[in-house]
Automatic annotation (TrEMBL):
Residues 306-325 are annotated as: Disordered. Pfam families: BcrAD_BadFG (PF01869). This is ATPase. SUPFAM superfamilies: Actin-like ATPase domain (SSF53067). It comes from the Bacteria. Transmembrane segments: none annotated. InterPro entries: ATPase_BadF, ATPase_NBD, Euk-type_GlcNAc_Kinase. It comes from Arthrobacter yangruifuii.
């Protein structure tokens, strides 16, 4: 567990931190700056799951961490692009901790805090993709994070989809499946490349295809040229997001990269490091700890209340009523 000496809490009460991603909700309970309990449940991001599914996931998190003695909840989530988004998520959380202050921030801010940086560029390379940055003066910029229908290039979903497209293209050209295609067909239980079409448009979701990204990296490591090209293109897309933000804010970093791909795929890390270094960004940090622990850094730094998207206290009947998408 992570301990942050000297962090403070409202009235000495405990704090719960939440990292709400596209596939899971990761929660911790902090007591006097130390994480004393930790749990993982399903996604509570209402852009990916129904409101009821989100409510159930949050119920499981608070059942595991406890609701008594909580003075504050700090929740980082994707899909909080407007005050209405933040209010809607805050309302769902407040059901479990009436009277506690509930702060909602974009999950990229947890990435930056987990990298022990108060300014710089935060990147999520996971199921989706986005880059967000903030300067010492508080100026902010963002690139991407529009969701899989509009963007998320370089993400796990994007990689999985590109593997499907590659497999179908080879079939159209009457070429035998290569190592990437063979691995994908086997993993999906598909007898033919064409059967992937119905599977893709039918019972699966973006999390299912993001889960196939590892096949692309494995094939690339084995020398498959198509997989290598897909990984390189993914790195190019992610680097583009980062450089957009760096250019807008005119800062050299640090760049803190999180998300499942950003944290666990060395090939992607090497490509990003090389590309960004060549562009003059040399302080590149790949998270070694989960983003939710950035909550402890925010508290210790005394910055947990600044720059929040729709932050505020919620008690009984004061949670707000924004529309949940």
């Amino acid at each position: 567990m992570h301990s942050i000496p000297g962090s403070t809490h409202d009235g000495g009460a405990d704090v719960i931190g939440l990292d709400i991603g596209g596939t899971k909700t990761h929660g911790i309970r902090l007591h006097r700056g130390a994480a004393v309990s930790e749990t993982v449940s399903g996604s509570a991001n209402v852009q990916n799951v129904s409101v009821e599914a989100a409510r159930q996931s949050l119920a499981e998190v608070f059942a595991a961490l406890g609701s008594e003695g909580i003075g504050r909840v700090i929740a980082g989530s994707g899909g909080v692009d407007t005050r209405q988004d933040a209010d809607a998520l805050r309302a769902l959380i407040a059901e479990h901790v009436p009277g506690a202050a509930v702060d909602v921030i974009h999950d990229t801010r947890l990435i930056l805090a987990a990298g022990e940086a108060s300014e710089g560029i935060a990147v999520i390379a996971g199921t989706g993709s986005v880059a967000w940055g903030i300067t010492g003066s508080g100026r902010q910029a963002r690139s991407g994070g529009w969701g899989y229908l509009l963007g998320d290039e370089g993400s796990g979903y994007w990689l999985g989809r590109e593997a499907v497209r590659h497999t179908l293209r080879r079939s159209n050209l009457e070429l035998v499946p290569d190592s990437l295609s063979t691995a994908l067909l086997r993993e999906c239980g598909a007898e033919t490349p064409e059967s992937l079409i119905g599977l893709f448009h039918g019972p699966t979701d973006r999390r299912y295809w993001a889960g196939k990204a590892g096949l692309v990296f494995e094939a690339a490591q084995e020398g498959n040229p198509a997989a290598t090209a897909i990984v390189a293109e993914a790195a190019g897309h992610l680097a583009g997001l980062i450089l957009d933000v760096a250019g807008l804010l005119e800062i050299p970093g640090p760049v803190v990269i999180g998300g499942g791909l950003g944290m666990h795929q060395p090939m992607l890390q090497d490509l990003l490091r090389d590309t960004l270094s060549a562009a003059g960004l040399r302080d590149i940090r790949f998270l070694a700890t989960d983003p939710v622990f950035g909550v402890a850094y925010l508290l210790a730094a005394g910055s947990a209340g600044s720059g929040f998207a729709g932050s505020g206290s919620t008690g009984s009947g004061s949670a707000g009523s924004g529309n949940v998408r």
